[in-house]
Amino acid sequence: MILADGAREDLFRRLLEEGKLPHIQKEIVGRGAYAKGVTVFPSTTGPAYFPFLTGYHPGDLNVPGIRWFDKSAYANAAKKMVKFRSYVGIETFLINSDIKPVPTVFDLLPQSFSIFNSVCRGAGRRNLTKIMRIWYWYYAHLTDRWEFLDQQALAKTLRAIEKDFRFLFVVFPGIDEYAHLAHPHHEKTIERYRFLDDAVGELAAKLKAKGELDDTLFWIVSDHGLSATHTHFCVNEFMEKRGLPPFYYPKVFHRRGKKVANMMSGNGMTHLYFKNGHDWGMQTTRTDIRKIDSALLADLVKEPAVDILAVRNGDGGIDILSKRGEAKLKLLGDKVEYSPSPLVGEGWGEGGDPFGYSNLSGTLTKEEILEKTIDTDYPDALWQLAQIFKASRTGDIILSATPGYDFRVKYEVPEHKGSHGSIHREHMMTPVATNAPLDRPVLRTVDVFSETMRLMERPLHA
What we know:
Shape: globular
CATH topology of the largest domain: Alkaline Phosphatase, subunit A
Strand order of the largest sheet: 10-11-12-18-13-14-15-16-17
CATH superfamily of the largest domain: Alkaline Phosphatase, subunit A
Oligomer: single chain
Number of helices: 17
Helix content: 25-40%
Largest sheet: 9 strands, mixed
Number of domains: 2
């Protein structure tokens, strides 16, 4: 399973159709299938790896982003508990202990190996880049030589398939990194797609020489897409000006007098957690936020950078707000209840559906949601928002950025010219290529795990 970090579905498909990914076409798609994938929210590295390796959403595993804050743990000063986290840098190593104890593919398939992958619980010594990964990333960050990491990913994979392996998961980071440094359609980014294609050619040739190509299941998947970024909007400054000073990474130890925690993922989404009165411990609902700042929600929605705002309501669900309108959403087991409001909101909105959906309401199954929204700007958004709010570490408010904008101005070195993390189509749609037949042209990335186990005739539980 090759994870082409940051590969856009539309771009990957166009390159295939233009014959610019000949090895992937010949060795993988030509033997099997190509499908449109819908990733999880937030659409960001790390949490969006969970589906492929566990079959779960980030909300299920209580790790709702690359940065998060645990309100109940933070309120309990007497206990040593995990209070907040950022998986950018050294804390990357802690993601495996932070997720709920579910079996990973490395638990289920003992002869499995991991390369340049941070979500590797159960791999043990079969994690072939356990310590060196962060040093490779640090070197590439300082030099901008992310093509070197792709080259190393290929070299380590070629060595790994000499072993008696059952499963091998490898991350190629170059597409994502050059899309951040330049933009998703820049020539340097496109070159990383072509390198990936050459890598597939080399891997297929080696497996063929071993007589194992026809018995090897191939996947090429991605965790998210990206969009070009032209404007940075600072959520921290917005909150400070309203008398709601936030703490945030990297300045998380400057917490005296702070009233909000701001935890961003992929720069295209962020969690906001509010100190409710004298205590951080309680979840803060829309009604509570009105008491803190009566115009806060309306003013956030009016910002050009803010596309979608989701906030907990007092009915056990969430309210979704945008410039188009608002709606209520509630998870009911394996279904959701969705109710767009015909009323104009508190100073925003046109009285329509917040996503611009047409005639979508009522109690919907997850299959219906995917089918009815796949060709919209917000594919699967109802299911994905319902899933992330299952996590106790999810914010009181989630903001999703308008394409072209992100939420980070300070402490982003080098400056990001491409962003992801949002619930918009440009970030949520991903390619899924396999040399096995698929019975559907669209699937969620969480389905890849169960498809893998089915094709390998393995049980889904340890």
